[in-house]
TrEMBL record, chain C:
<keyword id="KW-0472">Membrane</keyword>
<feature type="transmembrane region" description="Helical">
    <location>
        <begin position="162"/>
        <end position="190"/>
    </location>
</feature>
<feature type="transmembrane region" description="Helical">
    <location>
        <begin position="85"/>
        <end position="102"/>
    </location>
</feature>
<keyword id="KW-1003">Cell membrane</keyword>
<feature type="transmembrane region" description="Helical">
    <location>
        <begin position="287"/>
        <end position="305"/>
    </location>
</feature>
<keyword id="KW-1133">Transmembrane helix</keyword>
<dbReference type="GO" id="GO:0015658">
    <property type="term" value="F:branched-chain amino acid transmembrane transporter activity"/>
</dbReference>
<protein>
    <submittedName>
        <fullName>Benzoate transport, inner-membrane translocator</fullName>
    </submittedName>
</protein>
<keyword id="KW-0812">Transmembrane</keyword>
<feature type="transmembrane region" description="Helical">
    <location>
        <begin position="210"/>
        <end position="230"/>
    </location>
</feature>
<dbReference type="Pfam" id="PF02653">
    <property type="entry name" value="BPD_transp_2"/>
</dbReference>
<dbReference type="InterPro" id="IPR043428">
    <property type="entry name" value="LivM-like"/>
</dbReference>
<dbReference type="GO" id="GO:0005886">
    <property type="term" value="C:plasma membrane"/>
</dbReference>
<feature type="transmembrane region" description="Helical">
    <location>
        <begin position="109"/>
        <end position="126"/>
    </location>
</feature>
<dbReference type="InterPro" id="IPR001851">
    <property type="entry name" value="ABC_transp_permease"/>
</dbReference>
<feature type="transmembrane region" description="Helical">
    <location>
        <begin position="250"/>
        <end position="275"/>
    </location>
</feature>
Length: 399, 289, 327
């Protein structure tokens, strides 16, 4: 399942294709290609490394939507070119080059890692290739680095944390601390949490940070009892989140100071966190038990196709395909009509399993942030933390 | 500054430092005796941690992982010494660096092929899955205290082994004056193999012990490798006592730095290293310094 | 360490010409790949001044490469390359001076560990503080190609070609400068230190000062390489400073051959080519790289240049015999 189910290109074939592309490149561009031939969409995602499972789900859901459309967008068959970015920022520029120059991808979808996505954003800005970001939440991509050709179907790091802070403040929390890795995602989320909590009437009295991706949380945890807090908010993901939640409970803090955070704190990690996570509240744009027909159908179809349960990453990948489809339909497959394409995508209303969303002026989803509670292995949606929340998009000037 | 908080931080620092000792003592002995720089030492730590993860998942018992890491480490170390490292004792540092860099790549690739690339947490043994209150408001997991105890025990065993046994004195002689080994009629090959095997076993044991504390993830040995180098530079090469005190010092400086000087936390150990280099370039506990 | 013979230089010049003409015969992708290889060659060449010439194996050299690259980000946008290039070199040299002064208090593997630790310290400085925009890296605007009032506007289409020629020119200048340096008293002192430092000290050389000068110069040249990397990719991230990159530099040197000044250039080309071939053939790139390194350290310790040297030796016995006497 490495390549698109619709236009299967075995790996060797892809090599041959790349070779052909190299030869073809010496010739002048042929306009005929834009009409008849397949449209090449580059999926640059982690298919190995720590985030491999996320990449696989994004790709599987993207391909699922493509299959629902009979393998075509805007009347043209779509050929998917997968490229494993290994979540390795050191090779990011090189990898984007491979997709755009060697494999001649005409649209890009990617990626998970917030460092690697920067190289994609750069390519979209410099070469005008349309890009849809199906996960990475760096606020910059839809703030100061926003561009007419850059879209996102996931979230900005600011959004879920803002929702969490707001919900916490409304529940009456006055003093909270923010614990995170000291890196862009953690700090951007921290900014959202601080603003959300302030809007709800509370205050962040201390930020506790450790270098990414260290997991030596003890020096931070030992400071919490002395701060007389009503709650602790946090941003961690993956294994770091597992470790943090377990150590928080082991330090005896869970009963004294409730832990909450951006949804990634308990996303895909509940099984490993076990009892330590029970009852933790988080905020995210998706959750378990979200009751709408689109979601039910989506989850069933994904289960049938991929033989595993859909998650927030699958939703984001599915919506990336929907958004690209809307744009290409509007220009009837002529991807070179950049202005019309991006206008159609900008104005799209995406019928997402998370609930329909539109895009903000800086191309980030305007979406509900749900409040969830971890209960026996699920992040059950218990309410809406912030309705139709848009990232402020500060500093975005579309050229 | 609240005193109970400080107490908890000191405990954290000691526990981290003792774990560092297990890793850096092997590193410093291999340097001292064979003159080999082993960049893959951090990968051995990673292998120990993943072994603990795999064994715990298969059998549900971390207890088995500790003796397995030691036994497996001794065998694996002896094998590596026999097949690869033996050829490199007299080669240039550049060759040693690249050999061990290649091993890092191969070990990581093997890990990826066998166990995948996911971040996995490893549960602490059920018996130790409770918390011990250390201050009125802060508890310490029993497993952390157990790790502290095991590390101390290993340190004591190492001192006894080196000070009180014939093999130990031979190793000591080899570390202090490599050229003396042959003159004294000692079997250099056997000493080399034992030292390398013990160093590997210690790194893998450290990994197995750390697995429930750190979780396991790709390239997890990298950070420990660098900090272990700092320990060896601070403590003095070839000296197990130097590695012990150096590791405790680095553990405390790093932990207290993170707790009380946020922002500059990551840099504290390097500043310490620079100061040691200025003051005593051979390390704080270097022989004859 | 030897500088190539006249025939060797002719071969290098021919290769440079072939690279310069690449935009005419190769695809745009391969032109960009060649630029990457040229930047890698600059980095390896700067490291060769330490390793090949003076026998100092540093594992922190990438830090200076990264600082040179980050200088482009830290300087105001829109400056001329005539200003940013020397500024990158100076900044890298300024970082190399204290690191070298401290590290050179040690020798051998102590030196190796110390440079590694300081290199990682600088890595963390960019990775964990807002100084350089954090761990995700930042875009940089390329320095302007203008000199003495003439500005050279590069259209987007021909940018890869211009960058290729620029990188080729910088590499050639760096190589020529180092070749000349090897012939000076300083070059001889470095070689002497590599062979026998104690003897050089007995001869009255202040060997630590000579080594420090080499360390700082190598740092500055790595800064130049970093500058060209930032200029080529318009993107910098902390991985540029990481020790894996330093190890890759050492690998290029070993691939190309320790004994020759042009070795790192061959090595960098081989390394980039190898990486490209590995990604085309398999998803397990590390496996291929690891096995190739093992093969090289086990069976080809003199590198690719060593192979060529063996061929040359039969034809030109006199000059090469002197070189072969060097370890």
């Amino acid at each position: 399942m490495r390549d698109s189910a619709n236009t299967p290109v075995p790996r060797r074939g892809l090599v041959a294709l790349a070779g052909a592309a190299v030869l073809a490149e010496a010739l002048p561009p042929r306009p005929a290609l834009a009409q008849g031939g397949p449209l090449r969409v580059g999926l640059m995602l982690p298919f190995s490394g720590t985030f491999a499972a996320l990449g696989e789900n994004i790709a599987a859901a993207f391909e699922m939507h493509l299959a629902e459309r009979g393998g075509r967008m805007g009347g043209r068959p779509v050929q998917i070119i997968r490229l494993d970015d290994e979540s390795n920022p050191a090779n990011a520029v090189q990898n984007v080059n491979r997709l755009v120059s060697r494999d001649r991808a005409e649209a890009l979808v990617g990626t998970v890692h917030s460092g690697v996505v920067m190289a994609l954003v750069q390519a979209a800005r410099e070469r005008g290739v349309p890009l849809i970001i199906p996960n990475a939440g760096n606020v910059a991509a839809t703030r100061e680095l926003c561009s007419p050709t850059v879209f996102r179907t996931s979230f900005s790091n600011w959004q879920p944390a803002y929702g969490m802070g707001l919900a916490l403040g409304k529940q009456g929390a006055k003093r909270a601390a923010w614990v995170t890795w000291d890196y862009a995602a953690g700090n951007e989320a921290g900014e959202g949490f601080r603003q959300g909590l302030a809007a709800g009437g509370g205050e962040v009295v201390r930020e506790l940070k450790l270098p990414f991706p260290e997991t030596n949380f003890q020096p931070l945890l030992a400071q919490i009892p002395g701060l007389s807090l009503d709650a602790v908010g946090s941003f961690f993901a993956g294994g770091g989140a597992v470790q943090f939640v377990r150590e928080y409970a082991a330090a005896g803090l869970k009963e004294r100071v409730p832990l909450c955070g951006s949804g990634f704190l308990t996303e895909g990690t509940l099984q490993a966190q076990g009892a330590a996570a029970e009852g933790i509240r988080t905020a995210l744009h998706y959750g378990d038990g979200l009751d709408n027909p689109k979601n039910t159908a989506f989850r069933r179809a994904f289960r049938e196709r991929a033989n595993r349960d859909a998650d927030v990453y699958a939703v984001q990948g599915y919506d990336a395909a929907q958004l690209l489809g809307i744009g290409l339909d509007a220009v009837r497959g002529d991807i070179s009509a950049e202005k019309e394409l991006t206008r159609a995508m900008r104005g799209a209303r995406v019928d997402s399993p998370r609930g329909a969303f539109t895009l903000s002026p800086s191309h980030n989803p305007v979406q509900n942030i749900y409040l969830r509670e971890a209960r026996s292995g699920e992040n059950r949606v218990v309410g809406v933390a912030a309705e139709a929340l848009a990232d402020p998009g500060t500093g975005c000037r579309m050229s | 500054m609240d005193v109970s908080g400080l107490l908890a931080q000191v405990l954290n620092g000691l526990q981290y430092g003792l774990l560092l000792f297990l890793i850096s003592s092997g590193l410093t002995l291999v340097f001292g005796v064979m003159g080999v720089i082993n960049l893959a030492h951090g990968s051995l730590f990673m292998i120990g941690a993943y072994a603990a993860f795999a064994i715990t998942r298969l059998t549900g018992a971390l207890w088995l992982a500790l003796p397995a890491a030691v036994a497996g480490g001794l065998l694996f170390g002896a094998l590596l010494e026999r097949v690869l490292f033996r050829r490199f004792y007299r080669r240039e540092h550049l060759d040693q660096v690249l050999l061990t860099f290649a091993l890092i790549l191969l070990f990581e690739e093997a890990r990826s092929a066998l166990l995948g690339n996911d971040f996995h947490s490893v549960p602490a043994p059920a018996v130790l899955d409770f918390s011990v209150p250390v201050t009125a408001a802060f508890s310490y997991s029993a497993y952390r205290l157990a790790v502290l105890a095991v590390c101390l025990l290993v340190a004591v065993l190492m001192f006894l082994g080196i000070e009180r046994t014939r093999l130990g004195s031979a190793v000591r002689a080899a570390a202090e004056k490599p050229e003396m080994v042959e003159l004294l009629g000692l079997d250099a090959r056997r000493i080399h193999m034992v030292v390398f095997a013990v160093g590997t076993a210690l790194a893998m044991l450290a990994g197995a012990l750390a697995a429930p504390l750190q979780s396991v993830y790709p390239n997890m040995g990298d950070g420990f490798l660098i900090v272990s180098f700092v320990v060896v530079v601070v403590g003095g090469v070839g000296s197990v006592a130097g590695a012990f005190w150096g590791a405790l010092l680095i553990g405390l400086v790093d932990t207290l730095g993170k707790a009380y000087v946020p922002g500059a936390a990551g840099l504290a150990v390097y500043v310490l290293m620079a100061a040691v280099l200025l003051w005593r370039p051979g390390g704080l506990f270097a022989r004859g310094a | 360490m030897i500088v190539a013979s006249r025939a060797g230089h002719a071969a290098l010049a021919l290769a440079a010409l072939a690279v310069a003409l690449m935009p005419l015969w190769a695809s745009g992708y391969h032109v960009q790949l060649a630029s990457t290889a040229l930047v890698a060659a600059m980095f390896a060449l700067s490291l060769q001044l330490l390793v090949g010439a003076a026998g100092m194996v540093s594992l922190g050299h990438a830090a200076f490469f990264g600082i040179g690259a980050y200088a482009v980000h830290l300087l105001p946008a829109g400056l001329s390359i005539l200003f940013t290039l020397p500024a990158s070199a100076l900044l890298a040299a300024a970082a190399a001076l204290p690191v070298g002064a401290l590290s050179l208090r040690t020798r051998g593997f102590f030196f190796l560990m110390t440079t590694l630790a300081f290199g990682q310290m600088l890595f963390f400085l960019f990775h964990d503080t807002p100084l350089g925009g954090g761990k995700d890296g930042v875009f940089v605007s390329r320095p302007a190609l203008e000199a003495f009032g003439f500005a050279f506007e590069v259209p987007r289409r021909s940018r890869p070609t211009v960058l290729l020629l620029l990188n080729l020119g910088v590499l050639a200048a760096m190589y020529a400068g180092l070749a000349a340096l090897m012939g000076t008293l300083f070059g001889h002192a470095l070689r002497g230190i590599r062979e026998n430092e104690d003897r050089m000290r007995a001869l009255g050389y202040d060997t630590r000062r000579v080594k420090l000068a080499a360390f700082v110069l190598a740092g500055a040249l790595a800064g130049v390489a970093g500058h060209m990397s930032a200029m080529t990719e318009a993107f910098v991230n902390p991985e540029l400073l990481g020790w894996h990159r330093s190890a890759e530099g050492l690998l290029m040197i070993l691939l190309g051959g320790l004994g020759a000044l042009h070795g790192p250039i061959l090595g960098a080309a081989a390394f980039v080519g190898l990486g490209e071939a590995a990604t085309l053939l398999t998803e397990r790139r590390r496996l291929v790289e690891g096995l190739v390194i093992l093969a090289v350290v086990l069976v080809l310790p003199r590198g690719l240049a060593g192979l060529r040297l063996g061929l040359l030796r039969r034809r030109e016995p006199a000059p090469v015999a002197a070189a072969a006497a060097e370890p």
